[in-house]
Amino acid sequence: MANLNKALILHKKLKGKISVQSKVKLDTREILSLAYTPGVAEPVREIAVDPNKVWDLTMKRNTVAVISDGSAVLGLGNVGAKAAIPVMEGKCAIFKEFAGIDAFPICIESQNVDDIVLIIKNISPIFGGINIEDISAPRCFEIENRLQDLGIPVMHDDQHATSIIVLAALLNALEVVKKTFTDCKIVIVGSGAAGTATVKLLSKLSPKDILVVDRTGIISSSRTDLNPCKQELTKITNRQNISGSLSDAAKNADVLIGLSSKGLFTQEIIKSLNPDPIIFAMANPDPEIYPAEVHAVRDDAIMATGRSDFPNQVNNVLGFPFIFRGALDVRAKKINIEMNNNTLRTYSAKVKKFNRPKTYDIFGKISKTPK
């Protein structure tokens, strides 16, 4: 397990994880005159005449904005724009390291949908793509939908990248336990952006059933407290229209997916799952249950978290850099379902077939059972 105090020391030492670096060394009068005045006037004139030349003469072709209002940061909740900065910096560092993309963290001091949409539209000329991050549901759905006419790809990472990686990991895990989607009762805890998108994607593969659990309990059409997004989920989940708690939902489930908050999965819940259960505890920084707690009561479980310091990481970091890399390379105007499916195929194909050990790294490595 990572030493979190070391993380704080690292951030204090670095004073930010990213920086801007010039591609041109301004070490002679000639280079300065080419990169800035008077030479810089030439690309300005070219772009003024033909705006499409911005893709060839500026950084736009390789630049993504990572935008948050701080309303749903990790599993820490509404911590505000300033507190969101370390996460957005981390996203930008990942963009650069994994996909060679120049990304900039932009944390907005407003949680008003109209404000956020207007700000993004007004800053979009410099960017080749917009990555919306850690904005709470249901506002995040409206923001993404209203930005689809920008002419550059706009994606809510917590929805699409998360759901793609969950499905890829689940396909691989099912291969290991020799089950199919039609065999499986799936329980998803959390009905925010990630949970909603994951439900919609998994439902397309016709599982035996999907139950969604929020803070009140199982989402069912019998409830009168559901917002429109949750009402929509009742059409594709909970075929028996049952009610109850998380414990009720988890009984005899094959797959338990946490996209919620720390500590929600008890060992009694884990014991109640079907044989060979698949457990994704993806809350960050603290999962719904730790791997050691699972393995203390089950030796047949496939266990994954969203953290980088445990085996079997299932996290949108495995998806979003590469989705945007492809989108930028083809100058996509939107990110469509075909792009998402291609990403899914890439990751689900990484499974290796062999006899399952007690724990299994979904992307190909055997790991020992944690003590």
Helix-strand blueprint:
Layout: H1 4-14, H2 29-35, H3 41-49, H4 54-57, E1 63-68, H5 81-99, E2 102-107, H6 113-123, E3 129-132, H7 139-146, E4 154-156, H8 157-177, E5 185-189, H9 193-203, E6 209-213, H10 228-233, H11 246-250, E7 255-258, H12 267-271, E8 278-281, H13 291-295, E9 302-305, H14 320-329, H15 337-348, E10 359-360, E11 366-367
Parallel strand pairs: 1-2, 1-3, 3-4, 5-6, 5-7, 7-8, 8-9
Antiparallel strand pairs: 10-11
Helix pairs in contact: 5-14, 6-7, 8-9, 8-15
Written description of the protein model:
This protein has helices at residues 4-14, 29-35, 41-49, 54-57, 81-99, 113-123, 139-146, 157-177, 193-203, 228-233, 246-250, 267-271, 291-295, 320-329, 337-348, and strands at 63-68, 102-107, 129-132, 154-156, 185-189, 209-213, 255-258, 278-281, 302-305, 359-360, 366-367. The chain is of the alpha/beta class and 371 residues long. It folds into two domains: 29-152, Rossmann fold (3-Layer(aba) Sandwich); 161-315 and 348-367, Rossmann fold (3-Layer(aba) Sandwich), CATH 3.40.50. The strands form three sheets. A five-stranded parallel sheet has the order 6-5-7-8-9. A four-stranded parallel sheet has the order 2-1-3-4, sandwiched between helices. Residues 350-371 have low confidence and may be disordered.
- Determine the number of helices (DSSP H or I, runs of at least 4 residues): 15
Contiguous low-pLDDT stretches (5 residues minimum) are: 350-371
Radius of gyration: 22 Å
- Mean pLDDT equals 87
Write the CATH fold name of the largest domain.
Answer: Rossmann fold
Shape: elongated
Fourth CATH level, the homologous superfamily of the largest domain: NAD(P)-binding Rossmann-like Domain
| SS class | alpha/beta
Please state the second-level CATH architecture of the largest domain: 3-Layer(aba) Sandwich
The biggest sheet, with number of strands, parallel, antiparallel or mixed sense and barrel status, is: 5 strands, parallel
Q: First CA to last CA: what distance?
A: 12 Å
Task: State the domain count.
Answer: 2
SS elements, strand count? 11
Strand order of the largest sheet: 6-5-7-8-9
> Can you give the helix content as a percent range?
25-40%
CATH uppermost class of the largest domain? Alpha Beta
Would you list the SSEs in sequence order as H and E?
Answer: HHHHEHEHEHEHEHEHHEHEHEHHEE
Percent of residues in β-strands: 5-15%
